[in-house]
Design goal:
Layout lengths: L9 E8 L2 E8 L19 E2 L6 E3 L1 E2 L9 E13 L3 E12 L4 E13 L5 E11 L4 E3 L7 E4 L14 E11 L5 E8 L9 E4 L4 E5 L6 E3 L5 E11 L4 H5 L2
Antiparallel strand pairs: 1-2, 1-12, 3-11, 4-5, 4-10, 6-7, 7-8, 8-9, 9-17, 10-16, 11-15, 12-13, 12-14, 13-17, 14-15
Amino acid sequence: MLDGMDKRQNKRLLATERGEPQRRRAERRANNRAADSPAAYPEVLARLQQRRFTPAYKARVDFWSDRRLGTVRHKRIVKYEDQGETSYLVAENEWVDKDGKVLLSETRKVSVVLLDGKERMLIIDSTFTAAGKPVTLGKTPFGLLGARMAKTLGVNEKEILWKQARWVDYSGPIENGRTEGITLFDHPGNPNHPSCFHVQNDGWMGASLTYDGPREIAAEKPLRVRYGLYVHSDLKAPAEIEKQ
């Protein structure tokens, strides 16, 4: 059990490496400061890594750096529904180079499912289509989706970094004595499932789409990827996470 009064609170990083559960605990890094952590952990959630990989269209186009060589441009909202326990929004985006040339068209559906105990599931469902000639997503350990966790959860994740998993759970104590976490699921239908996960000491975790090598998207062969983010309380056992 975690002792909220212990200054050396344990943290948990839980993963299913190559489909098998893996659990590891570590002590909080000395340079972590609780004062820097967000007041409400679930509000951190995750953000789409719109620049975290590099499509190549003849010349290399970088969507990651601050040099603005590539941009993800919102085009329009296609549909949105509030159905009570489940709500969703469908949007169209364009991935463009520095000259405004559209390389990829993306249709993104973001769904939020309300669960018991004020927990929730966020589902990201994106389909990418080449606007003209085929586009190659460059090899990188980063991916389309990542979550930045509260700094109070920072650990040494050497046993998890760049290993395949169906999901990774990052949980631990946050402010006000609460214990919460996020599980990042890689959908079984994704082309590289189970994905390699990029996990860092500063609370970062993400699923890589092109860790093993480049991936081509053609106009006649769109790429569909799906990820789930389970925002939960407490330290969940692997069996509980698997039910999601």
